[in-house]
Amino acid sequence: MSNSDITIKQVCVIGAGVMGSGIAAQIANAGIAVSLLDIIPEGASNRNIIAENAIQTLLKARPAPLMHKRYAKNIKVGNLEDNLDEIAQADWIIEVVTERIEIKLELYKKIDAARKKGSIVSSNTSTLPLFELTKGMPKTFCEDFLITHFFNPPRYMRLIEVIQGPQTRHNITSTLEEFCDIKLGKSIVECNDTPGFIANRIGIYWLQTGLQEAIRFGLTVEEADAIGGRPMGIPKTGVFGLMDLVGIDLMPHVLKSMLEYLPADDAYHQQEEIPELINTMIADGYTGRKGKGGFYRLNKSTGKKIKESIDLITGDYAISDKAKLASLNPAISKDLQKLLCFDDKGGHFAWAVLSKVLCYSASLVGQVSDSIYAIDQAMKLGYNWKYGPFELVDKLGVDWFVKKLEQDDLDIPPILTAAKGRNLFTSTDQQKQYLCLSGEYKDIPQAAGILLLSHIKSSQKPLFKNASASLWDISDGVICLEFHSKMNALDPAIFSAIDSAINIVEKDYKALVLYNEGSNYSVGANIGLILFAANIAAWQQIEQQIQLGQQTFKRMKYAPFPVVGAPFGMALGGGCESLLHCDAIQAHAETYMGLVEAGVGLIPAWGGIKEMTSRWLSNPNWAKGPMPAISKVFETISTATVSTSAAEAKDYLFLKPDDGISMNRDRLLFDAKEKALSLIKGYSPPEGPEFNLAGETARSAFNLAVDSFVQSGKATSYDAVIADQLAMVISGDHADTQQALTEDEMLGLEIKGFMNLIKKNKTLARVEHMLETGKPLRN
Fold first, then answer.
1. What is the pLDDT of residues 366-416, one digit of tens each?
2. Which of 18, 585, 615, 748 has the most crowded Cβ, counting Cβ within 10 A?
3. C-alpha distances in angstroms, 25 versus 58, 68, 377, 695?
4. Domains in the chain, please, with CATH?
5. What separation in angstroms does the CA of 57 have from each of 17, 20, 164, 448, 684?
6. For residue range 180-202, what is the model confidence (pLDDT) as tens digits?
7. Which pTM value belongs to this model?
8. Residues 303, 304, 309, 314: is their CA dihedral positive or negative?
């Protein structure tokens, strides 16, 4: 813990634009009281109109800045004339106003006059250096001032760049970093006070380089984005898709600001020319997604949405077409060395861009930061690169990369010279290290409360492993079950691993955690296996696989030790069902849970309906009698409802009220392990539920409701077929309403409904369409 003399309990954000309101929303998501202030527009009758409108925008925006609409209550609106007391009460004041130094300095005088002693003040500036922001300010202000550069959108982008000045008190920096880490879920990268800091310094250089090189080599925007995206571990938006996303009109302004402060010998000055095409696009309103379009646009003139892209030479738009370069052949593009050496314009473009960007990044070591790890983190978290620039060099091979630079007579940055014959990153006994300019390795810092499976895996062998899952000892008597099938889809190998985990924990350990470090916890069952079996009419095999999943999850539920699920990202279908059978869940705040089987023409059958029905029937806050509870279950599953956050998952009882939520993804495994350890003492498995259901009356009521949706065009006739099988299970089929059903009887109904649907052609069409397109079919 920090040793600061201040605890952050109340925050004030000044500036209610997109960024300021987004920062306020993330603070509200953490349950912290936050004031949002802005100026009073000239002649406005409502003096708080700007901040009030910002809240309304937050509530409507998609993707949502707020994790739950109720969190808006944590935000108090005001203005900079009537509500200076909000500044006086705040422990942390964040300035998020326009990037004009004179406006910021004038505001700082007002803040300093109103704030309490020792409160923290920070700027969200992305380009202005700290030494300019503190010019003429008193020492007491400078001691409490620093830069906290959030990335947009603040809820979803994990990076905060922190820049402190020579007078900034160390304890306020540590207090703020701890708060942003634990409460806001952010990853902190400390930067030196240089123009653009780290991520934008490299990121804008990369975008400008990609733009210029694409024009030089005569690539289309599709070709440039296909080459400069996934093959390099960069999001598929590539250069042009990203510029459309952030706004093409921002590029000249940011570039101008950077060049103003950068020395004349910086490589930026070689890339400073803005192509005339960009100026024309901006003048014509083609500023990207926020404008009429950008490098890509949707042409709706024919009544249909037709994707078009711009010709980088003529400026004309044409129907967007997939790139067909020989260098994009998977045999080439999936091997980065081969791609960079391939003799076509795609290969030449790839080398021209990557050599410049990697060399520029390497030349900044000692300027923007002394740590290559910090530089990599900034690019991975700020620009969503899969690999940082130095990880990419290691991936290519340091010596290979240096040799190719030498062949092109390019300068070799000092850090690459220091790395000769070695990697830039190494590891020893769960401790990862990075190379310094001195040629020595330094430990990568890791805060208390962070436990990464990747570090554990680098120093031990699994207790069990098959093609889809592995078991790892994460110490203190706890085992971690890791899924690693494609998209972490559940299959028989994962069920085998769960069985092995139960056996191993029963014999030698104390608890089990379900967790992995993929892109998502699990997207559900491997429906490709189900479709294959259905196409050859292997109905018995399909039923056996459903029974296997039910039996495995049931065994896990009643194991003689605690089981904790630790989801993040998507936890859908069978992935959600695995979590419903855990004793407790510690979820990352960005967890999107749901039973989505209706989208592929099926119903949950690995105990998901049974568990959701049990949760709603036993919910003390719900109305008495079965109908209100099972109606909620029917609505949630039939509409394939997915929570938009872990907080919202509690509304649907995908998460129980006492399940935990971790804001920081890197803390999730540690927090889940702690939850598991807290359950060990006096643990006993849960008692089996009984189900008092409403029988045929409920099924008829549900079908009547669905029929009305079909008649109004809000559902298809086949949606009604699927809903009827769901209603059959939830109502208890022809059950005697005076006699409770057992857990096994509910599982039997799930199998019955599932098998009734899997044999229908329209279900198979939905499954096939999902596998081919990733989107549901409304047949």
1. 999 999 999 999 999 999 999 999 999 999 999 999 999 999 999 999 999
2. 585
3. 8, 10, 24, 45
4. 10-190 (3.40.50.720), 199-370 (1.10.1040), 453-596+642-680 (3.90.226.10)
5. 10, 12, 32, 37, 48
6. 999 999 999 999 999 999 999 99
7. 0.94
8. negative
